[in-house]
Design a protein that fits this description.
single chain, alpha+beta, four-stranded antiparallel beta sheet, 4 helices, Metallo-beta-lactamase, Chain A, about 20% helix, four-stranded mixed beta sheet, 10 strands, globular, 2 domains
């Protein structure tokens, strides 16, 4: 089965196999949050990203400065195209909600431009906190537009 990243609340999870890593994506309610379970294929160790809600659904899986203070993004790079888990810092179509705070928006955009778009290639697969997956190549042309519109 081919990974699409297309998940919905109450629907099945979608799983992607990478060298050394298995990624399982599931959507939980009430706000269609994406959660990701990463499993190291060598050790079996697990990492749960964005465990927003619905503990039962999340437990049933195989066990950046920006949007909010203390947020981080994680990159998995096994030598091919990187895989970036952005939480609520980057979505298809723009940065995450900074509640119209110009300082937080500026920090988020600075970090996205410097630490994400400035460091990673266009083929980087992006796993956002809500909605569909994307790539940096699909989003990169819109960065100046996001900065100009202020969200």
């Amino acid at each position: 089965m081919t990974y699409t990243g297309d998940v919905s609340v109450g629907g099945p999870a979608d799983t992607r196999e990478l060298p050394g890593l298995t990624i399982t994506k599931v959507a939980v309610g009430p706000m269609d949050n994406n959660a990701y379970l990463l499993r190291c294929t060598g050790t079996g160790e697990l990492l749960l990203i964005d465990a927003a809600n619905d503990a039962g659904t999340l437990l049933a899986l195989i066990h950046l400065r920006g949007h909010t203070p203390g947020s981080i993004a994680l990159v998995y790079d096994a030598g091919g195209e990187p895989h970036l888990f952005t939480g609520d810092s980057l979505f298809p179509g723009g940065p995450g909600n900074t509640e119209h705070d110009p300082k937080r928006f500026g920090q988020l955009m600075d970090d996205l431009e410097e630490r994400v778009f400035g460091e990673l290639p266009d083929g980087t697969w992006v796993y956002p906190g809500h909605g569909q997956d994307t790539t940096l190549g699909a989003e990169r042309p819109h960065v100046p537009e996001w900065r100009a519109r202020g969200w």
